[in-house]
Amino acid sequence: MIPTNEEEIYKGIKQAIIQQQLRPNMQLVEEVLAESFGVSRTPVRNVLRRLAQEKLVTIIPYKGTFVSCLTVQEAKEVYEARKFLEAVTIRQACKRLTEEHVLQLKTIIEEEHEAHSHEDSFVSLRLSCDIHLKIAEIAGNSYNYRYLEELISLSYVIYAFYGPGRLFCGSEEHTEILHALKQRDESLAERLMLEHLNRIESLLNFNETLAAPLSLTEIFKGK
Questions:
Q1: Does pLDDT of 169 surpass 70?
Q2: Which is it for the CA torsion 67, 81, 176, 104, positive or negative?
Q3: pTM metric for this prediction
């Protein structure tokens, strides 16, 4: 289990990426982060490795660690792949859905709604991703699950770079998708999922220039 201080560092850095405080290609200097969090470099290094596994940061040997960056074309390709894959998985999930699965999805959606009501974009985004991965898990294809898991990690990077800086993945749409799953209506479930992903993609700011970022010390001051 990851020590509490590492978990706090992990959440702090990941949240700063998602909330666009840490910008793509920005270097994450271990010494500065360690000083900001009041810890040694070891837990910071462990956290950066974890974030690299999630593709949120890129570690370049002999150069350092940088916030990951995707081009507009790469971002569009991620969503194209997600739509193709999630259309398949939700149809499979319709066939395999159990009452236990319904309760699990309902619980996550309720937690997502609660996060929305508190305007907690970090938790809301995580729960939204959990819903999509849970549907893939229900579908029962381990290869599709792993592919989608990687695409969703890349979606965090896309949100950090191109996201509108506000909550934009509505729990109401996930509720509608759950209802279609419960009805085992494959066509409706697929249509709702694709509409959901298309709407999210349409809200990404592919032409917007971001303001100058803060320094690492300013971002994590008081952590």
A1: no
A2: negative
A3: 0.78
